[in-house]
Amino acid sequence: MTTSAAQPPVIAIDGPAASGKGTIAYNIATTLGYHYLDSGALYRVVALRALEHDVGAGDAAALATLALDVDVSFRAGRALLGGRSVGDALRTEAVSAAASRIAIHPAVRAALLARQRAFRTPPGLVAEGRDMGTVVFPDASLKVFLTATAEARAERRYKQLIDKGIPANIDGLLRDIRERDLRDSTRAAAPLVPAPDAVLLDTTDLTIAEVTDAVLALHCVRHDPA
Ligand code: DC
Predict the structure, then answer these.
(1) Residue 58 has what pLDDT?
(2) What is d(CA 86, CA 180) in angstroms, rounded to the nearest whole number?
(3) Sequence-separated (6 or more) residues with CB below 8 Å from residue 127
(4) Which of 2, 18, 60, 173 has a Cα at 20 to 30 A from 223?
(5) CA–CA separation, 72 and 58 (whole Å)
(6) What angle is formed at CA 138 by the lines to CA 133 and CA 144, rounded to 5 degrees?
C-alpha cells in the first residue's frame, strides 16, 4: 500500500515484547525529526488506571470508558498521566501483564484508535506497537516487523533490570514473555501478526544500532528510490 498524498508518512514498527522496538522507533523518529508514538504506553496507561481504580481486566465497557477519558500526554517519548510522570510505573510486570490482558477487548482497542491516529502530523510519524501496520496505519509508507527469539528477549530484559539495580529472574522473565506472546498473537482483535507487506527483521543477533540503521536504510529506499 502507498502513502495517501494528503497524509504525512508513517513508519510502522511492530513486534513482540522486548524486541527493542521502543528504542529503535524513538531513535529513528529523532534522526528523521518525526513524531513518535509508543502505542503500548497507551495500553499500559489504561492498565495502570484500571489497577488504581480496581477495574477488572474482564470489564470491557468500564475499561473502554477509562481508555476514552484517560488524560495521557507524552514529553520526549515519556508518558504523563494527568501531568504526573508515570514512565517507571508503566514498566512494572503487573502493569505489563494487565496491559496485555485489557488489550484483548475490541472496545478498548476502538477507544484508543483515534488517539493513536492523531499522532500522524507533519513532517511524519514513527509508530510502534503490535498492530501499527495492520490496523492503525494500514497505509504506512514503511512497515517493519521485528522478531527475536524469546530467550534473546528475556536476556535483554534481564540485563536492563539488572543495570537499573532491580533484582530479576531470567526464568520468570522468559515465562512472562512467552505468556504475553501467546496472548498477544492469539487474541481475536488485532493480533500480533506481521502485515502482508511488512519487512521482517530478525534482531536476535543484531545490536540496537544495527537494527536502527537497517530500518533507516529501508526508509531512504522507499522515500527516495532513485
Ligand atoms: O509494547 P508494549 O510491551 O509496551 O505493550 C504492552 C501491551 O499492550 C502488550 O502486551 C499488548 C498491548 N498492545 C497492543 O495490544 N497493541 C499495541 N499496538 C501496543 C500494545
Answers:
(1) 95
(2) 22
(3) 10, 11, 12, 13, 25, 36, 37, 39, 116, 119, 120, 136, 137, 140
(4) 18
(5) 22
(6) 25
Task: Determine the pLDDT at residue 93.
Answer: 83
Local structure of residue 24 (DSSP, 8 states): H
Judge if the beta carbon of residue 105 lies within 6 A of ligand 1: no
Atom of ligand 1 nearest to the CA of 100: 10
Tell me the residue type at 161. L
- pLDDT by residue (tens digit) across 101-144? 999 999 999 999 999 999 999 999 999 999 999 999 999 999 99
Distance 97 CA to ligand 1 centre (A): 10
Q: Please give the number of the atom of ligand 1 that sits closest to the Cα of 21.
A: 1
What's the chain's length in residues?
226
What residue ranges define each of the domains in the chain, with the CATH number in brackets?
10-217 (3.40.50.300)
